[in-house]
Design brief:
The chain has 26 helices and 21 strands. By secondary structure, it is an alpha+beta fold.
């Protein structure tokens, strides 16, 4: 090739060489600028990038009954979410425009159909602001997204960066109201609950820490066994820059599902109890009192403390409390605005005067102290109470009855008030604190230790309690009255024109102070000192007595199992859903053995049997059940004080056990405004016994 032909190639070579040199010069210059000239700046920027650890929600475990019937589970539900990571990394649109556009798409499906697009836009922004602590986790905008909206979001996906519809595990209660209060519900943890949940021993042992944004159980088993149900959350690392903007994310540990919690509850028995309670309340509304809307019932295994059924009315459907809830739903479950609050588990937290169902305590105390014997007969008239002063403080027999001569067995069977007023007074005169001591031994007025949150303690009154509880109030009122009088007269006396005026003012001050002392002594006598009428009221389960249906069932179980007071419990065991391995097993636990002798326990058990036979107040309930054997006690508990409006209103209460030989189960129930317990709560007990034992009625039931 000659020079002429070689010349174009030479020019091209030098041209390309020049370009290569220029490229390397540019790269070298930029490398020098980034690493040397501006190296310190970018070094500081890199130092600002940090890795944030974000939890990945897991699938919450199932709750099943004793026969593995599903009561609570997690099901996939389509939810609309907004992922800040994806949204902020979008280069095509402003995030505020995305939120505004999203508000327009979801308006027809928004929880408040009357809300404007602008207001929905604000609601979404507020929701985002409320979840600033979890800005690296997608924020849920709308639950239960219908198919039409899913299609709209998919069609406009390019216009909605960061917005997606995902299948998320949502809590579901397939039996709806069945055992609703027992199960509880699941919602986001409140700021004031974090410390409480972090005190859970199981969580502390595992090193788990609750934080804002977590979904937790609210009430019931969902709350008390939250740590086991929630499973192990996954871990995701999110890299953020020094302006807290997310850059990337990576899953480093996948989530593990929660454990399966098996209850002691028999779902079929639970349904029978709930249905019967509904029917009884409906009947009372129609025939006796339209205000009857509430009640509760408990069935317990007398030999283990296992709760087999525990119903509360009004009913609660935990499904109603998932996701966004309306004001009407909130009022229904959490206030008494239009009806009794449905979220309250009245079997566990409802406090009721026990009425005549308390009389076995009085009987056992009297027999143990030997202030009477089972055969002693007392004339069932008001004159039996003693002198005329005592008679005026006593009560006539319920229903205007005169039962004549009654011993312990007839007194329990007929529910004689006069008999128990007489022997109750004897007990209080002998040992004022003894009835309270015995009641506590049987689980009344004490926390039972049941594995459920929200249990009420109740109250066993006594002379010492009345004084300790009431006297400080009247001491404070007296001191305030005296201080007001001092203040009233101090300036007047100081400004008195002469000694005579001062003396007159001093006499007026002394007189007013004397009147305060008279008032104070009257209040101490009536409201602080233990009076005969307190003994009478307490002996028949009225007065200050207040207990839960669970406590009443536990107390009856303790009578008939020989005096072993078991801790009631609702969860049988916890298992791994994958391996089936039992990871936690609850066992029967005797909290104490009562001091009442076996002979006394047997005597009271026989008296309870008499209630279901012959002239007993509950004999009609079981007359058509030839297989029935057991015992019971009816109760008609006055709601308010005598001579008041509520003084003419009564709750119907009933306790029972079966069978008589080797008892298996005990029952306690209350129907608010139900009047006589045998006519109301007694029918719930009858239904429970028939279901549990498979008994049939001779009348075809």
């Amino acid at each position: 090739m000659d020079d002429k032909e070689r010349k174009p190639y030479t020019h091209r070579f030098w041209g390309l060489s020049t370009v290569v040199v220029l490229v390397f010069l540019i790269l070298g210059f930029n490398l020098w600028r980034l690493q040397i000239a501006e190296g310190s700046y970018y070094s500081e920027m890199a130092k600002g990038n940090v890795m944030q650890v974000v939890k990945i929600p897991t699938t919450r475990g199932d709750i099943v009954d004793k026969n593995n019937k599903l009561l609570a589970t997690s099901v996939p539900e389509f939810v609309l979410t907004l992922d800040w990571l994806d949204l902020q990394q979008s280069k095509t649109t402003n995030w505020k425009d995305v939120v505004k556009r999203l508000a327009g798409f979801i308006k027809p499906y928004w929880t408040n159909p009357n809300e404007s697009v602008d207001n929905i836009d604000v609601d979404i922004l507020v929701n985002i602001q409320n979840h600033q602590w979890e800005r690296y986790r997608p924020v849920t905008i709308l639950d239960n997204v219908p198919q039409e909206l899913q299609a709209i979001i998919a069609e406009h996906q390019d216009e909605l960066p960061g917005v997606s519809v995902d299948a998320t595990p949502i809590r579901s209660y397939p039996q709806h109201t069945l055992a609703g209060q027992i199960l509880g519900y699941v919602r986001e943890i409140g700021p004031n609950e974090i410390d409480q949940f972090n005190k859970n021993p199981d969580a502390q042992k595992a090193g788990f820490t609750y934080s804002q944004g977590d979904l937790v159980g609210k009430d019931g088993v969902e709350k008390s066994y939250d740590f086991w149900l929630r499973g192990q959350e996954g871990v995701q690392q999110v890299e953020v820059d020094n302006n807290a903007r997310p850059l990337s994310k990576k899953v480093v540990q996948p989530p593990e599902p929660g454990k399966t919690v098996q209850l002691t509850i028999d779902a079929d028995l639970q349904k029978t109890v709930e249905d019967s309670l509904d029917q009884v309340i409906s009947d009372v509304q129609k025939t006796t009192n339209p205000n009857a809307k509430s009640g509760a019932a408990v069935v317990i295994d007398v030999n283990t403390g296992k709760i087999l059924a525990m119903a509360s009315r009004p009913s609660m459907d935990p499904n109603d409390l998932i996701g966004n809830i309306s004001q009407a739903v909130s009022d229904k479950y959490f206030t008494n605005k239009d009806a009794p609050a449905a979220s309250l588990d009245r079997a566990l937290a409802g406090l009721y005067p026990p009425g005549s169902t308390f009389k076995m305590i009085t009987a056992m105390a009297a027999l143990q102290l030997k202030v009477t014997n089972p055969q002693e007969q007392i004339n069932d008239v008001i004159s039996s109470l003693g002198n005329m002063v005592a008679q005026r403080q006593g009560f006539v027999e319920w229903g205007g009855n005169n039962f004549g001569l009654v011993n312990l067995y007839r007194a329990i069977a007929l529910s004689s008030d006069i008999y128990f007023e007489v022997i109750g007074r004897r007990v209080f005169d002998s040992n004022p604190e003894f009835i309270g001591q015995i009641a506590h031994e049987f689980g009344l007025g004490t926390y039972s230790g049941v594995d459920l949150p929200g249990e009420a303690k109740g109250l066993v009154p006594s002379a010492a309690w009345k004084k300790a509880n009431n006297q400080p109030t009247y001491d404070k009122q007296r001191d305030q009255k005296l201080a007001d009088i001092d203040s009233k007269y101090a300036s007047k006396i100081a400004q008195a024109k002469d000694a005579q005026t001062k003396q007159k003012l001093q006499a007026q001050e002394d007189q007013e102070k004397k009147q305060v002392q008279v008032w104070y002594q009257q209040m101490i006598s009536q409201e602080v000192d233990w009076q005969a009428y307190d003994s009478y009221n307490n002996a028949i389960g009225q007065g200050y007595n207040d207990y839960t249906p669970l406590q009443l069932a536990d107390y009856v179980a303790t009578i008939v199992n020989g005096g072993k007071h078991y801790r009631p419990y609702i969860v049988n065991k916890i298992t791994d859903p994958i391996t089936g391995k039992v990871v936690k097993q609850n066992e029967p636990q005797v909290t104490n053995t009562v001091s009442i002798s076996p002979d006394v326990l047997n005597t009271v058990k026989q008296a309870m049997q008499a209630t279901t036979q012959g002239e007993g107040t509950a004999s009609f309930l079981f007359s058509d059940l030839p297989e029935f054997s057991g015992g019971a006690k009816t109760g008609t508990a006055q709601i308010g004080s005598k001579d008041t409006i509520s003084g003419e209103l009564y709750n119907g209460e009933f306790v029972a056990f079966a069978p008589y030989d080797h008892p298996q189960i005990a029952f306690a129930g209350v129907v608010e405004y139900g009047s006589h317990g045998g006519d109301t709560a007694g029918y719930v007990a009858r239904a429970a016994f028939m279901k549990y034992f498979g008994w049939k009625s001779t009348n075809g039931g």
